[in-house]
Fold these 4 entries.
Entry 1:
Amino acid sequence: MDFIPVNRPIVGEEEKKAVLDVVSSGMLVNASYEGGRHVRAFEGKVRKLVGAKHVVAVNSGTAALHTALMALGMKRGDEVIVPSFTFVATANVVLACGAKPVFVDIKEDYNMDPSAFKKAITKRTKAVIPVHIYGYPADMDEIRETAAAKSVKVIEDAAESLGATYKGTQTGKLSDAGCFSLYATKVVTSGEGGAISTDDDELADMLRLVRNHGQVHGYDSRHLGFNYRLPEMSAALASVQMDRLDGFLRARARNAKYLTERVAATDGARFTQDAADRTHVFYLYTLYLRKNREKILKALNGAGVGAAVYWHIPVHKTPLYVKLGYGRKKLRRSESAAGHVLSLPVYPGLSESDLERVAGEFLKAARANL
Ligand SMILES: Cc1ncc(COP(=O)(O)O)c(C=O)c1O
């Protein structure tokens, strides 16, 4: 029987044609402040979805976060509050600015705990980066309210949440800057890629400068920047994917509903991302397992179901951050999540029989181990 991976991109004939058209045109990149034709078309589609005034495409989600921090002026001595239960990029970009990541704990839904954020603020705090973990929006009202009172900038790490909404508003529109990833497994992909949304004209200008070595007309660098441009081929691919987003999200939601009905009520397993005031894009469908996570993971993988763990180690416990002196910090919920979460396949390309197999194998493994 075929192995069912935990995630698989859907890239079809239209995407292939869009990429080949760019290759045939010979215009692979447009190294300008505005970006090329396909970059601008892609940006327009994200702008429309998110409802933001500006969208700036870049070549990864990491680049999106780094560009946003740089454009907001983060520098040595500044503190940026981040969750530890996230992909390491969320914190690495803070280090890349010479600033200091300050790790805080999460809630049961794996998103930043707004009260932990509030407690971690100091005179040096310049920004906070809530992450919409697995595609499920964080408590943005509380985070924004605290941030506004303390003049702290808010950057959403929306790498996993393109299309998700919080109280009716799209993620990426809930802060000073929203950062998306177009990595291969994300809800919309171009292999590698990213985008930043903002309503702020000046910030958008700065984002475009940072993306292009600080240049407007070429060889006129006026700000520190890098080559964070999205290639035209990638933009053309991502543009077609944007047209398919509604269908992708419907399929993810349908698959998640099936999994919830079949497996989430299992004794010893919990699904915790289900508040009624926000929508989940189900980049990942993740359960909290009371015990024996590794055994269940092994059983599923052995049965051809590519369940996986995001993430085994909270960022502050990774070797780099331990070396930097963060290792002794106690973040109870982050550490507990890292030891107990398990993500099941939920991607749009799953067939009904795939889903039955995922649920069936999970229930079998759970009965033996939970
Ligand atoms: C939460 C989170 N932040 C940041 C990133 C970085 O995005 P990218 O891999 O496109 O650089 C990712 C994805 O990999 C992510 O899941």
Entry 2:
Amino acid sequence: MTPRFRPVALEHASRLVNHGPTVLVTSAAGGRRNVMAAAWSMPVEFTPPRIAVVIDKHTFTRELVVASGAFGICLPGTALVDLTYAVGGESGRAVDKFARHGIVATQGPVLGMPLIEAGCAAWLECRLIREPHAEDAYDTCFAEVVAAAADERIFSNGHWSFSDDNAELQTIHHLGAGHFVRAGGVLRAKPLQAPRARGTEGAS
Ligand SMILES: Cc1cc2nc3c(=O)[nH]c(=O)nc-3n(C[C@H](O)[C@H](O)[C@H](O)COP(=O)(O)O)c2cc1C
């Protein structure tokens, strides 16, 4: 783990993907490894932490994920927007995308998945929960998060912290056709005032 990365308690792991970041799905099996972009992922359970991610059945990633029963989810920051788009537009079947793009991977602590820390805000290591119908009909893969870590400059004590100082690590969100927005415009919701009952306007 790089010095800025810290383990994230599993009860906080769902917060890493609660806001719908575009992620990098990493995978490895039979001496091969791969990485692809995925905009469609979400938490589906707090404890144990479970997520769902759409991994098209025609991708090389799906082949490796089913073979190993595991995958990694890495959250690229704005610095990796070009890389994210690139690995989402090419197949790893004939080429090692890590080598092609000079991506450095660390090994996941529980399942040994390749995980990317440089330029990423966080990662989750996930064990596939076999749901053949969902995988086949909806290309949706469910998984339990078994380990997670985040760069302390943007996520610590179970909370995100977006500021001008960590813009490079802020998560990216795909609008389509290579256009992304980054997270960062934080709005804090306040409790609404209870509406006054009808007919009491003007009454004191
Ligand atoms: C921004 C972006 C988001 C994407 N989101 C998804 C997704 O959620 N699910 C999916 O199956 N493919 C998604 N893709 C397409 C895959 O990343 C693409 O098919 C990739 O080439 C598969 O690589 P592989 O065959 O090496 O696994 C996305 C592509 C881009 C550029």
Entry 3:
Amino acid sequence: MIRYALSCKACEAEFEAWFASSGAYESQKEKRQVRCLDCGSSRVEKAIMAPAVKTTKAKDAAPDPEKLMEEFAAKARDHVAENFDYVGESFAEEARSMFYGEQDHRPIWGETTAEEREALSEEGVPAAPLPPAFTPPVPKPKGRLN
Ligand SMILES: [Zn+2]
């Protein structure tokens, strides 16, 4: 047995029906035996979303991809802000010095020029561009630096 969510093209009713197999559905459909429970029309199609009985509820519950993406990006930004040290324009210098063991590894983020990025990549220093959506606001410089 196979269950299909069906929708009526005539009255837009949505309902579910059981068939012996997908072939049984096809052959009953061909013979116009698959009919709308509401209006009796044979203009019934398999609905894309299943189950289709509570369409409005299902639609409300379906996550909005844009919202999900924004939530994900917000988490990524928080993660960077909390765990990564902002080193500003000395990123290339810091990354290189960690790579060559001149200082302990720690997660950092900062700014690089295109030339610096190219040089780092040629030297094999692991660094990846942070997508703009994942980039937290630049922290205010600490007073003790001056
Ligand atoms: Zn109908």
Entry 4:
Amino acid sequence: MSTRKTHIKDNDLVSVLSGKDKGKTGRVLGIIPSKNRAVVEGVQMIKQHMRPNQMGQGGVVEKEGTVHLSNLKLVCPKCNAPTRTKRQVFEREAGTRTKKYRLRVCKKCGAVAEQE
Ligand SMILES: [Zn+2]
């Protein structure tokens, strides 16, 4: 098992399905595949107490916690709504060969839901 089969990737725009941030959307800042969790911008904010150091005065800093991938849904850029995705194989001419690649597409409208 060398390939990650997460349905969510870095920089995706996702919607949160449950928890205190239910309904929020944000960008995926990072994925932790081994834990099936992701860090989403502005979601699951946790307060961290910082000691004063060279970087600043310290105090309470808010930082994103992690969200389980099953609680996230990709937002389709066309439907502009959280959607289920499927993987579709596309072909592209590459010189004399045809390259196959898989992209996630929206189950509702069929639009490619990959962020470039
Ligand atoms: Zn769609």
